[in-house]
Amino acid sequence: MAAQRAGAAAALPANRRHRGLPRAVPRRAEPSRAEPGAAVMAAAIRRLLRAGGRRGAALVAAAGGPGSQTLRLIYTTTAAWKKNVAASGPEKYTEAFIKKQIEEFNLGKRHLANMMGEDPETFTQEDIDRAIAYLFPSGLFDKRARPMMKHPTEIFPEQRKIQWGEDGRPFHFLFYTGKQSYYSLMHDTYEKLLNVQKHQDQLAAQDLPPQKEKKNLVGSRWLTKTELEEMLLEKLSDDDYSRFIQLLQKLVMMPCGNIEENYIKKFSREISAQLQKVVIEPLKYDEQGVAFSTGEGARKTSRATVTVYDNGTGKITVNGIDVLHYFPVLQDREQLLFPFQFLDRVGKHDMVCTVSGGGRSSQAGAIRLASAKALRSFVTEKEVESMRQAGLLTVDPRVKERKKPGQEGARRKFTWKKR
Amino acid sequence: MAAPSAAGLGRRLRAWLPRLTQVRWTRYNPSFLEPEVNKELYRKPWDELSEEEKEKQELRALQPIKAAPPSVSCSVFSDPMISKFTNMMMKNGNKVLARSLMAQTLEAIKRKQLEKYHKAPEDEKEKIECNPYIIFHQALKNCQPIIGLSNITKGGKTYQVPVPLKDNRKRFLAMKWLITECRENKHRRMLMPEKLSQELLLAFNNEGPIIKKKHVLHKMAEANRAYAHFRWW
């Protein structure tokens, strides 16, 4: 009877077969250790199955009692073996796999260096990028679609290790909340808050004034939501994120918040002073010895170039036409005068502009930006900074919002009809 | 519909939502601060600034600043209240017309006040206010209600509950009443500047239909005092 059943087993290709993981037990990353005796038996029966038979059969381990496993034959269809791609979530990589990838990458790096005739020891990532771009030229538009060779930690996203042990019991006490890192973070931060309160109470009990050295929040910002998600390796909702930031701010605002400075530092980043990178061009002089400076500006689809001359009477020419004729609307002329009025230089400069594209308001805005940029060369650094703080030197990023499918315009929806 | 499509486009635009989820988003990064256009503030030497102002200055020195909008300028003629009122008067985006109507209104106020000034005897001449901007601001202030009514449904019935109003809301209501009054209760041939100047002068003297409307609202709120405890905010 057993031989007949064994004879009926299918000669399926090896990969469709049961791999040695007992099917009745839930899937895990590491195979659970079956009893050695049962494994031997399983191997023997598997050999028999592979030898003969047509219909699909599988070997199932059933817990026959404590410490022993009996093996039963069940008949399944291919549908049961099909991998549920949607339910498995993002691809999970084992540590061994990542290690292997890193070894392969390092080896490949040395080969590439040899190929390019460079020294394998001092071959940096930039050299790799250049070599790949040379060997595999690609005209694809999206940079991320082109061939790339990067360290595996940059390619494979960092994933969490398995959060439960062999017995199925999770390691972290907040595992069953679903967001264990987030809640444990809130828990720790609140603990720090209570610490600070206790410290404050102690100081108050000893009648000492609370410490007033507040950490300077000026040059720092909190972590963004994406950065926090990367840190916790867990998805956060906006509400969760804002709650966490509120708690951090409460901690910082307390008088004795300096005690927990180390903890808070983990969640704040420096805002680098990116604003000092702008180089102001020096003044140029034309044939008559008059100082002038040029500037370019843009707003929506308008582009403007402006030359501001010194020793002027406040005359403004746009595209060869006088400003009163080109901009009949008062608001546009106010905008053109804005930078000059701000610096108290209204009748002192002449301006010659060329502008194209856009409508009347956007052309005026483009000329305003261009003239503000040109005036930087005439003016002290402090005044440039005050111009920046008045919003004269920032490019306005607002453009027309695109129309979306299923809606009539960018925001307007189609008329709702009940039937 | 706006939220999912915004999320798709917004990744490039870095739409970070600070408080509880908002559907509005801007092209600016949320770290950008509002521009400060008043040039007197920048002329002040460092020592005269108070502690708060110094901190604010330091913060602004490191943060990027948004571009100044086209309706704002540092000239003495640009006034935020008047810009707001002009925008509310504007129909179909016709800012040119709205601005010209506003200018004509202010001119009409000035003319009327000057007429009164020249006709008045010497001792009363000082009391007549000729500056149209001052008249406009005072009239709006006089029209602002202090307390408003809000519809709260409790136990199936909707009650009108007296509720304190925020500053923005007060200003908005005053301007809205003014504009609706001028659009509706006038003779067909009368033009907007004339009617508006009339209403503003009446409001400046605490008379007129808008002040009456404000008083009616206050009386209703007083009458519904009993339901004040329905408010939970």
Account of the protein in words:
The complex is a heterodimer of chains A (419) and B (233). Chain A has 419 residues and is an alpha+beta fold. Chain A folds into 4 domains: 42 residues, no CATH class; 61 residues, no CATH class; 94 residues, no CATH class; 107 residues, Ribosomal Protein S5, domain 2. In chain A, 39% of the residues lie in helices and 12% in strands. In chain A, strand 5 and strand 6 form a beta hairpin. In chain A, helix 8 packs parallel to helix 10. Chain A is extended, with a radius of gyration of 35 Å. Chain B has 2 domains: 33 residues, no CATH class; 151 residues, Ribosomal protein S7/S5 (Ribosomal Protein S7). In chain B, strands 1-2 form a two-stranded antiparallel ribbon. The N terminus of chain B is likely disordered. Chains A and B meet through helix 10, helix 13, helix 14 and helix 15 of A and helix 1, helix 3 and helix 5 of B. Chain B: Keywords: Mitochondrion, Ribonucleoprotein, Ribosomal protein, Transit peptide. Chain B: Belongs to the universal ribosomal protein uS7 family. Chain B: It comes from Aythya fuligula.
Helix/strand layout:
The complex is a heterodimer of chains A (419) and B (233).
Chain A: H1 2-7, H2 36-51, E1 58-65, E2 68-74, H3 78-81, H4 85-88, H5 95-116, H6 125-135, H7 152-155, H8 180-205, E3 220-222, H9 225-232, H10 238-253, H11 261-265, E4 268-270, E5 284-285, E6 291-299, E7 302-309, E8 316-318, E9 321-322, H12 323-326, H13 330-342, E10 350-356, H14 360-375, H15 381-389
Parallel strand pairs in A: 8-10
Antiparallel strand pairs in A: 1-2, 3-4, 5-6, 6-7, 7-10, 8-9
Chain B: H1 2-13, H2 40-43, H3 51-62, H4 80-89, H5 95-119, H6 132-143, E1 147-154, E2 157-164, H7 167-184, H8 192-204, H9 209-223
Antiparallel strand pairs in B: 1-2
Helix pairs in contact in B: 4-5, 5-6, 5-8, 6-8, 7-8
